[in-house]
């Protein structure tokens, strides 16, 4: 397929691998350096980590290498590309926030955004769903 692969790789079932261990494992497999070439964000509530590659690498090939790597298999972890989405959920928003403010914020290229199609506010949850016009502005 000609679509560009996502620069985001999801690692699932990470409970047996400490954050530092995962970072070193990724450095060993990719040959890249954490902080300079990629970052790792942990989402402990769902037992997942997301690696964001700052360098343009073949993430499909990296996922393949990870799934074949002895240590990744010993930890029972899985790796996959993070699929693109057109919507994101923003949480812990101030009570006074407006949908117009959120649209402008998420359209800012400085914040990594792009054209916003819709903003749904959920004041009772202090959250909102932001829907983009395309997949480009939602990393």
Present the secondary structure layout.
Elements: E1 8-12, H1 19-30, E2 38-43, E3 48-53, H2 59-68, H3 70-74, E4 78-81, E5 87-90, H4 99-107, E6 116-122, E7 127-132
Antiparallel strand pairs: 1-3, 1-4, 2-3, 5-7, 6-7
Overview of the structural elements:
This protein is an alpha+beta fold. It folds into two domains: 8-81, 2-Layer Sandwich (Alpha-Beta Plaits), CATH 3.30.70; 87-132, Alpha-Beta Plaits (2-Layer Sandwich). It has four helices and seven strands; from the N terminus they run E-H-E-E-H-H-E-E-H-E-E. It has helices spanning 19-30, 59-68, 70-74, 99-107; strands at 8-12, 38-43, 48-53, 78-81, 87-90, 116-122, 127-132. It has a four-stranded antiparallel β-sheet. Strands 5-7-6 form a three-stranded antiparallel β-sheet, with helices on one face. The longest helix is centred in the N-terminal third of the chain and has 12 residues, at 19-30.
In short:
26% of the residues lie in helices and 27% in strands. With 139 residues, it is α+β, with helices and mostly antiparallel strands. It has 2 domains: 74 residues, 2-Layer Sandwich (Alpha-Beta Plaits); 46 residues, RRM (RNA recognition motif) domain (Alpha-Beta Plaits, 2-Layer Sandwich), CATH 3.30.70.
The major beta sheet can be summarized as: 4 strands, antiparallel
The percent range for strand residues is 25-35%
Spatial order of the strands in the main sheet? Answer: 2-3-1-4
Would you tell me which CATH topology of the largest domain applies? Alpha-Beta Plaits
* Percentage of residues assigned to helices: 25-40%
- Quickly count the domains: 2
Q: What is the H-and-E element order? A: EHEEHHEEHEE
Uncertain runs are none
Number of strands: 7
Rounded to the nearest angstrom, the radius of gyration is 17 Å
CATH class term of the largest domain? Alpha Beta
Report the mean per-residue pLDDT as an integer. Answer: 88
User: Structural class of the secondary elements?
Assistant: alpha+beta
Task: Using the 3D structure, state the CATH architecture of the largest domain.
Answer: 2-Layer Sandwich
DSSP helix count?
Answer: 4
- End-to-end gap: 21 Å
């Amino acid at each position: 397929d000609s679509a560009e692969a996502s620069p985001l790789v999801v690692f699932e079932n990470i409970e047996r691998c400490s954050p530092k261990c995962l970072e070193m494992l990724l450095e060993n497999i990719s040959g890249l350096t954490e902080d300079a070439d990629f970052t790792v964000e942990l989402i402990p509530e769902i037992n997942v980590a997301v690696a964001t590659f700052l360098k343009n690498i073949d993430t499909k090939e990296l996922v393949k290498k990870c799934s074949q790597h002895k240590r990744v298999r010993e930890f029972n972890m899985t790796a996959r590309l993070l699929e693109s989405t057109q919507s994101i959920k923003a949480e812990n928003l101030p009570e006074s926030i407006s949908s117009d403010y959120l649209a402008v914020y998420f359209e800012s290229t400085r914040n990594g955004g792009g054209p916003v199609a819709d903003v749904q506010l959920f004041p009772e949850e202090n959250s909102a769903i932001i829907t983009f016009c395309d997949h480009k502005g939602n990393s």
